[in-house]
Design a protein that fits this description.
The complex is a heterodimer of chains A (251) and B (260).
Chain A: E1 3-11, E2 16-25, E3 30-34, H1 41-48, E4 56-61, E5 64-65, H2 71-78, E6 81-84, H3 96-107, H4 112-125, H5 141-153, E7 159-163, H6 171-188, E8 191-195, H7 199-205, E9 208-213, E10 216-221, H8 223-227, H9 232-239, H10 245-250
Helix pairs in contact in A: 3-4, 3-5, 5-6
Chain B: H1 2-28, H2 33-70, H3 79-117, H4 120-126, H5 131-170, H6 174-179, H7 181-184, H8 187-213, H9 218-255
Classes of the chains: A alpha/beta (251), B mainly alpha (260).
């Protein structure tokens, strides 16, 4: 087990968003989080990334309780993780190349030449070699996603968190991004946790699917198990039905 | 009213804790001088023309005002000293602080607020870097150091403005205008002006970085952070001006004739 949530509770004002939830992620596994908007999928990712502190419970990374560690130890542990943000969070004052070079300059002892070689490798991998000197706002949404992925992978993390990697993209670009994630996962042998509500991409990416709903995490399993899942909330969500427990609870 | 007061006290407390974290970060993991120099350059270039123009007119205004007052006493010769002393001790630091607050304070707060709401600050953390060290500390030091450079530039221009107006308005010989500056502008006036400049710059730098860093709620939140920065810095500068003036005068009374 590489990552785990143990009895984690977190809320933002109106009661807890997640109530004593548990989740275990094995090394090399690909987990996909699905669920209605605003119910805590991104929160799960941010908890693993150390960007949010739970009100109760433990975040376990490689057997260590993240928030019981000293700041420096936390930073070292979190360096094993890369994250693609929902809206990419690219540094708009830096060029495409410098966005990828930033973590390499900050956290490695590589020479500038070696950094540029690595930047070239990642840009090649995500098909952005031609855009190296452009700024993020000069490239398309799909290219920004690919740049976000390349930056998240710059430090060769063992765990990669993808927050809605295909949001707002057309089906073809969305498919290309999912293929890229799978390719990079195989290449770097990394563990991945992705958030998406695009079920086709979820089935493509997931070893296991987890639904975040009503403050709980429902592990639904792989594609076949998810499709056959008994919980009416899961079945309503994956089929996009307008009537069912999810719409009732919303109204 | 009570709620407003409570929010203000909360804000001041949180801002002080932010400043403490920043100083702690600066001691443990200082930022690079290169990053600070970039910020000094940005702030100085951004505000130099405005500061110099304002400095010129402040000198001119002081000269016009003092001319009217001291002409009756036949002490026009001291005009340069009086106008410069007032600028060094009070008007200069206050002017620089207000100019920086309007321009650099608002800009920094908006810039950091945008970085916060677009998750760029979270991204910096995720990439293993410390945002306080990477983006806050260089901006803080850049604003503080630049305010001294701008004070010097503004002061020179105010002497120049006073000198020109003194020659045209009161018919004072420029040589005489400058000769009396050291007579009236004491070391104490300079220390007092520099101290005020430091205090104002620190208030401005802490408030604008804190407000930007903690902005929430999209574009509206960034707007709120900028407005809040403007209000808090203006109030902070005026209140601290009163406190530093009181402190300066008390120090002057205590040590008069010995050190100054």
């Amino acid at each position: 087990m590489q990552l785990a949530l143990r009895d984690v509770t977190i809320g933002f004002g109106d009661g807890p968003l997640l109530k004593k939830v548990n989740l275990e992620v094995r090394q090399g596994e690909s987990i996909v989080l699905i669920g209605p908007s605003g119910l805590g999928k991104t929160v799960v990712l941010k908890l693993f990334a150390g960007l949010l502190k739970p009100d109760g419970g433990q975040i376990i990374i490689e057997g260590r309780d993240l928030h019981a560690l000293k700041f420096r130890e936390q930073v070292q542990l979190l360096l094993k993780m890369g994250m693609l943000f929902q809206k990419n969070a690219l540094f708009d004052s830096l060029t495409v190349g410098d966005n990828i070079a930033f973590p390499l300059r900050e956290k490695t002892l590589l020479t500038e030449g070696e950094i540029q070689d690595k930047v070239g490798y990642f840009l090649e991998a995500v098909g952005l070699a031609h855009a190296r000197t452009l700024f993020p706002d000069e490239i398309s949404g799909g290219m920004q996603k690919r740049l976000g992925i390349a930056r998240a992978l710059a430090l060769s993390p063992q765990i990669v968190l993808y927050d809605d990697p295909t949001a707002g993209l057309d089906p073809i670009t969305s498919r290309k991004i999912a293929d890229l994630i799978l390719f990079l996962r195989q290449e770097h042998k990394s563990t991945t946790i992705s958030v998406t509500n695009d079920m086709a991409r979820a089935y493509q990416l997931a070893d296991r699917i987890v639904m975040v709903v009503d403050g709980e995490l429902i592990v639904t399993g792989n594609k076949r198990e998810t499709l056959a899942h008994k919980d009416p909330r899961v079945s309503q969500f994956i089929h996009g039905d307008l009537t069912g427990p999810l719409t009732e609870s919303l109204t | 009213m009570l709620k407003v007061l409570k929010n203000l006290v909360d804000d001041i407390g949180a801002c002080m804790m932010f400043l403490r974290d920043m100083i702690r970060t600066g001691i443990r993991t200082p930022c690079t001088w290169e990053a600070v120099c970039v910020q000094i350059w940005k702030v100085t270039v951004q505000s130099l023309p405005t500061t110099m123009m304002a400095g010129f007119f402040v000198g001119a205004i002081m000269t016009v005002q003092f001319t009217m007052q001291i002409k009756a006493f036949g002490a026009l010769g001291y005009l340069g000293g009086l106008a410069t002393s007032a600028t060094v001790r009070e008007v200069g630091p206050l002017l620089i602080a207000f100019l920086l607050s309007g321009k650099v304070g608002a800009f920094t707060s908006a810039e950091l607020g945008t970085m916060r709401v677009t998750e760029q600050i979270d991204a910096i953390r995720c990439l293993g870097a410390n945002p306080l060290q990477e983006i806050i500390l260089p901006r803080f030091l850049g604003i503080v150091i630049s305010s001294f450079i701008l004070l010097a530039a503004g002061l020179l221009m105010s002497i120049f403005g006073g000198l020109i107006l003194g020659a045209f308005f009161a018919g004072i010989n420029p040589e005489e205008y400058i000769r009396h500056i050291p007579t009236i502008v004491s070391k104490f006036s300079i220390y007092s002006g520099l101290f005020k400049c430091l205090v104002f710059a620190m208030i401005l730098a802490s408030v604008c970085t804190y407000k930007g860093y903690t902005a929430t709620g999209g574009a509206k939140g960034v707007g709120r952070a900028v407005v809040s920065t403007a209000v808090m810095t203006m109030v902070g500068i005026v209140v601290s001006d009163w406190l530093t003036s009181l402190l300066s005068e008390t120090t002057l009374v205590l040590f008069r004739g010995d050190l100054f």
